């Protein structure tokens, strides 16, 4: 099982050894043991659904998930990706709103599910975790702002260059240096805000220009400098 990032140790401790935190009564500990879950999902399985009422948070132990919204035309707009150590659903819990986006597994994932009341109690008693969540909110807002900016101001070619660099920075690479995610051409098109045919053509052009290597749905960046310049990217 993958380890959580260091700043999520409190959540890991909450799940695996909640009595060591000293913030719950005996009755609450019994209730928590009954309600907590380890979820094992396969590719394509739903984690949360846009518009649903949140009941808890989802902490990724292993794997990658995509967060997305469905537009008025029925098209999917990918907002961001979450991987091991990331939390899904906390913003809706804190704002007491329905989920503003959906999330599905991009590959086999394992998740800690923690009911709302226990997550809130932990935040109230743990300033370090509360500050971490605040930082994550700020980071997510930055990602959303960057998405709005490149969709509104950059050409499709520039958007593809930036997205590939951001995906590599966020998700890392495998042993052969391919980005750790497998996206369909339709998903790539939705990510950069264009038609599937345009995404296919641009990926082919990037391959011809030796900016990337393509192996099925996997992509390897060959020339980071040129992609950075092309996408006007500051990582």
Descriptors for this entry?
alpha+beta; Jelly Rolls; single chain; 235 residues; four-stranded antiparallel β-sheet; Arc Repressor Mutant, subunit A
Could you characterize the architecture of this molecule?
GO terms for molecular function: DNA binding; DNA-binding transcription factor activity. Pfam families: cNMP_binding, HTH_Crp_2. Keywords: DNA-binding, Transcription, Transcription regulation. Residues 28-140 form the Cyclic nucleotide-binding domain. This is Crp/Fnr family transcriptional regulator. Strand 9 and strand 10 form a beta hairpin. This protein has 2 domains: 6-151, Jelly Rolls, CATH 2.60.120; 155-231, Winged helix-like DNA-binding domain superfamily/Winged helix DNA-binding domain (Arc Repressor Mutant, subunit A, Orthogonal Bundle). The protein contains 9 helices and 10 strands. The protein has helices spanning 9-16, 26-35, 90-95, 116-125, 127-153, 156-171, 185-192, 196-208, 224-231; strands at residues 37-41, 46-48, 56-62, 64-70, 76-83, 87-88, 102-105, 109-115, 212-215, 218-221. The strands form 3 sheets. It has a 4-stranded antiparallel sheet. The chain is α+β, with helices and mostly antiparallel strands. 45% of the residues lie in helices and 22% in strands. The longest helix has 27 residues, at 127-153. The chain starts with 8 loop residues before the first helix and ends with a helix.
